[in-house]
Amino acid sequence: MMSNTFRLHRLAVSTMAVLMFIVVACGNVVASEQKVIRYMTFMPAETEQQIVENFTKSHPDIVVKVEQLGFGDEYFEKILTSVATGSAPEVVTMNYEQFSRFVAAGAFAPLNSLIKSTSFDVDRYFPQVFNLFNFSGNQMAVPATFSNVVMFYNTSLFEEAGLRYPTSEWTWDDLVTAGKKLVRDTNRDGVTDVYGYAIQWWPIYLAMNGVTVLNQDNTKTRVDEPAAVEAIQRVIDTWAVHRFAINPTSGISDWDTWKAGNLAMWPTGPWAIGPFLETSFDWDVAHHPGMARKATFLYSNALAIPTGTKNLAEAWELIQYLAGPEGSRIRQGSGYELSPLRDVANLLAQGQRRPKSARVFFEATTYAVSPPTVADWDKIHDMIYNQIDQAYRGQVSPAQALKTAAQQVNAFLATKK
Questions:
Q1: In this structure, are residues 140 and 338 in contact, taking their beta carbons and an 8 Å threshold?
Q2: What 3-state class would DSSP assign to 249?
Q3: N or C: which end of the chain has fewer CB within 10 A?
Q4: Under-70 pLDDT residues of the chain
Q5: Angle between the 73-84 and 96-104 helix axes, to the nearest 10 degrees?
Q6: Do residues 203 and 358 make contact, with C-beta atoms less than 8 angstroms apart?
Q7: Is 396 helix (H, G, I), strand (E, B) or coil?
Q8: Is 253 helix (H, G, I), strand (E, B) or coil?
Q9: How far does the chain reach from its first CA to its final CA, in angstroms?
């Protein structure tokens, strides 16, 4: 679960089509010696079709039917149902946030033996991204894309305020100091016209202060610990005390405010590169300052083989192409997230006009952490966020909000033992 704007825009980029359609990549006639396999995905239809068409040119013995669905509950439930009925596609796209519950349900086949028996080069991938899909030593999927959160900043606003650009040495205090100098009421009507900052999804701030949402064995939450309370308080202070950030309960869109050139610092991900390549203001990206430490979340879309797939060899051939350098170059070139292959990802930083500092996305993988992934995460998240939202609105203190959230979550987790 993410902040509303974060989720809406990330899903908007993911969901290029909301109706299902079928593409037969090798034409309408299937020769008797050809194998027909199905590929279900929520990634952009035009891009995935182009990759599949290129694959079939070099693999004329395989016909691939691409099944495109919009990102959402219908997509994920369709996969579970098809696995249960023995009618699953040979290859499916799965996002990291949903992945653990599918693994727990036995929905996917381990890939270890396929990786070992072929020339598949694991070392080409960012290890932090590739290992997102390793469960108890079993590699359950191969990442096709990844994204993380860094700090976009409006260089024009920084220059107008006479400030130096953010650096990797910035601390949270530096962010606050800059934010207070960047916020402006240009016409002095008492309404903020230029904001210094917009907040991200709340768990990332806990990570920045060295706290995980759940303990190591996922039996209790840690949100009521002092470091977690401090993190949320410091976030709230950006608008309630220092008055330079957008209040997330105000209804003001961080996306639209950035687009208008009226937001100086914005933590977001590579899905925002494409839509803002052409703007009236200049911008770049930097490492987001931490509190006790730097932290960002890794997100990824991966390719998996559902359990019971009969055409296993053909499915693995397709995955190697989709997630390999050929597919990754096309996908990243379309502006859809980043390639998990280090050499392909680095192409973004070569000759890129915006952002000039694209390398920051790759450098941030070294301190990135995984967002929470437990089977009941949506329920746990909502219990916590419902309380944090009250703190955001000033109805309760962060300490009281997180104490109540911890009581609710721990009571729920106790029923799962």
A1: no
A2: coil
A3: C
A4: 1-32, 351-352
A5: 20
A6: no
A7: coil
A8: coil
A9: 24
